[in-house]
């Protein structure tokens, strides 16, 4: 069993998680603190056992990151094959949730900005671009050549050669 030093506390499952699991599993049973501590220690030891075996499997396959497949192989090799179907179900649920989160984070409606406001912002951007294009056309017509880029307009950058000469010259 683990001692109660600071380093060992970093390597255990949070007691709140264990208490919640015990309460959900045994809702009408009072569990003594010693028993709760034993459950924490057993869970921690189980995780260390599985992760060590998964790490060995990972190293044998010359990988640098432990994957879910390594954990599943570790469960099988340590005699916990009966857990594999449930582990695969949970893994699939996790993948589904992660995919939904990625999709949800990129959706426009999740920005929290009403569609009318987005449309107004879009129209404002179109107006700014239109003004910039009109100003550039006006400048172009004011000069005999298109060398107006020498003016510091702030919204143009023209490609140059290695010597710094504009390609447009």
Automatic annotation (TrEMBL):
GO terms for molecular function: protein heterodimerization activity; RNA polymerase II general transcription initiation factor activity; TBP-class protein binding. It holds the Pfam family CBFD_NFYB_HMF. GO terms for biological process: negative regulation of transcription by RNA polymerase II; regulation of cell division; RNA polymerase II preinitiation complex assembly. It is found in: Nucleus. Keywords: Nucleus. Gene3D superfamilies: Histone, subunit A (1.10.20.10). GO terms for cellular component: ATAC complex; negative cofactor 2 complex. Transmembrane segments: none annotated. Residues 12-75 form the Transcription factor CBF/NF-Y/archaeal histone domain. InterPro entries: CBFA_NFYB_domain, Histone-fold, Ncb2. PANTHER family: PROTEIN DR1. Belongs to the NC2 beta/DR1 family. This is Protein Dr1.
